[in-house]
């Protein structure tokens, strides 16, 4: 079928959007409409709220919303909300939390909270001339021009921390940046930062135009390319860690405490030096981080992008977590760059986000940073613990078992049979099919 482009799709009603999709792409099969309707919320007001989060919405896409209990974080016992569809993530985090609860729990430190943004511009002028202009006139004017924008943020203890001129002309002809650092307190601050940066661009253009030190040719060469925050926040860092005596590790897998500690450290070191392993290693960390990020209404794409950029900051992609086993002490930690908020955006709109933040005791942005870092560290500990002892598949496939059985149309009675059947066996897709056929006499 040759599909035709559609005009004004965004202006169509939800029903007309669905009708067009079914007619144009789904061979007029109305059963697909029933799938979409199954995920509509029966509460019309809530459904309308969900539809207004984004554009061209025709239904909702649900994810499981789970709870990982028993997290002792900086002396507080918390239950973490996790929105994630991958089997074993919540279970692994919960198991790690339980492992550390009697060993002092998780401890966190906020290392810094600076966020960054840039005005990117092209200016055909000598660098020393521009630097003089910036230091003796422009920088002060940039602060003055944004006073109205930053007033409320400054009342809350935040605002613009510093502005620098960055010379990038060796990498791209005539390319400069105004690099600004911000403290946005309890908000993620994207709109605030971008508003400040856009004013920077206007002020830069105006001040250059009015400055007699620049020739007309130089003035005409100034081009503001863009004003935008950076999702790479290497100075917005939280550290989460666990530690105990090696003698107290007491893993139940059958290997000695010393062997557990040695193998665990080797596994982390491999992820530090081998990018192929580091990628999967860090993906597991982000399983835990993203699940809490989503549950609290924050931007998991920004979190992912920042974490992976940070993992490659030294020119080679490496582990986000680290481990030492010195002087009989096992120590495992993560330094995570993460920029999140607890006010603004979905935090004031999505009912489950409100529930998540209430469940966590209405944390500040810094406290939420700590919780997310702990979730990532716990997830990584759980994964590595499995890898160096029983193997990753034993636990993961047990959690995946129900997915396989649901695909095969198993009854509740049959599901219970399989849970018992695999109690002391490793689940495999082949073995599930074999036992399923035997059970049904096929």
How would you characterize the overall build of this protein?
This protein has helices spanning 14-25, 31-38, 44-51, 89-100, 127-145, 147-155, 190-210, 216-221, 257-273, 275-295, 300-311, 351-359, 365-387, 392-407, 412-421, 429-439, and strands at residues 65-73, 76-83, 107-113, 115-122, 159-167, 175-183, 223-230, 236-245, 321-324, 329-337. It contains 16 helices and ten strands. The model has no long low-confidence stretch (mean pLDDT 93). It is α+β, with helices and mostly antiparallel strands and 442 residues long.
Order of helices and strands: HHHEEHEEHHEEHHEEHHHEEHHHHH
Q: Helix segment count?
A: 16
With strands numbered from the N-terminus, the spatial order across the biggest sheet is: 3-8-10-9
> Helicity, in percent?
40-55%
Multimeric state: single chain
Overall strand count = 10
- Beta-strand content estimate: 15-25%
Q: What is the average of the pLDDT values?
A: 93
Structural class: alpha+beta
Largest pleated sheet: 4 strands, antiparallel
What Rg is obtained from the alpha carbons, in whole angstroms? 27 Å
- Distance from first to last alpha carbon: 40 Å
Poorly predicted sequence stretches spanning 5 or more consecutive residues: none
Structural shape: globular
């Amino acid at each position: 079928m040759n599909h035709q482009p559609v005009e004004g799709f965004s202006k169509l009603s939800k029903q007309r959007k669905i009708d067009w999709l079914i007619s144009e792409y789904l061979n007029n099969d109305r059963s697909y409409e029933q799938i979409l309707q199954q995920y509509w919320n029966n509460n019309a007001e809530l459904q309308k709220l969900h539809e207004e989060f984004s554009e061209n919405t025709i239904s909702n896409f649900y994810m499981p919303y789970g709870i990982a209990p028993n997290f002792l974080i900086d002396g507080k016992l918390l239950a973490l909300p996790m929105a994630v569809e991958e089997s074993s993530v919540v279970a692994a985090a919960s198991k790690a939390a339980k492992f550390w609860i009697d060993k002092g729990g998780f401890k966190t430190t906020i290392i810094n909270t600076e966020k960054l943004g840039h005005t990117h511009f092209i200016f055909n002028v000598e660098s020393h001339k521009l630097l003089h202009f910036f230091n003796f006139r422009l920088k002060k004017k940039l602060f003055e021009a944004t006073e109205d924008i930053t007033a409320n943020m400054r009342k809350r203890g935040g605002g613009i921390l510093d502005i620098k001129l960055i010379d990038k002309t060796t990498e791209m002809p005539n390319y400069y940046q105004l690099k600004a650092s911000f403290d946005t307190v309890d908000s993620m601050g994207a709109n605030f930062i971008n508003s400040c940066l856009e004013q920077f661009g206007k002020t830069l253009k105006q001040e250059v135009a009015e400055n007699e030190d620049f020739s007309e040719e130089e003035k005409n060469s100034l081009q503001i390319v863009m004003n935008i925050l950076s999702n790479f926040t290497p100075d917005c860092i939280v550290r989460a860690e666990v530690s105990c005596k090696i003698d107290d590790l007491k893993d139940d897998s059958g290997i000695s405490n010393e062997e557990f500690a040695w193998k665990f450290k080797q596994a982390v070191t491999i992820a530090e030096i081998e990018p192929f392993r580091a990628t999967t290693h860090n993906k597991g960390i982000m399983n835990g981080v993203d699940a809490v990020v989503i549950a609290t209404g924050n931007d998991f794409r920004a979190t992912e992008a920042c974490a992976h950029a940070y993992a490659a900051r030294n020119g080679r992609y490496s582990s986000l977590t680290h481990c030492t086993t010195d002087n009989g002490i096992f120590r495992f930690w993560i330094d995570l760059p993460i920029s999140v908020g607890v006010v603004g955006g979905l935090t004031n709109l999505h009912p489950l986000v409100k529930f998540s933040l209430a469940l966590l005791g209405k944390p500040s942005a810094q406290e939420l940073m700590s919780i997310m870092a702990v979730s990532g560290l716990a997830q990584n500990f759980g994964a590595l613990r499995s890898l160096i002892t029983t193997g990753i598949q034993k636990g993961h496939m047990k959690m995946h078992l129900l997915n396989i059985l649901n695909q095969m149309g198993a009854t509740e009675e049959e599901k219970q049979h399989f849970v018992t059947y695999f109690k002391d066996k490793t689940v495999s897709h082949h073995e599930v099919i074999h036992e399923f056929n035997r059970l049904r006499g096929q």
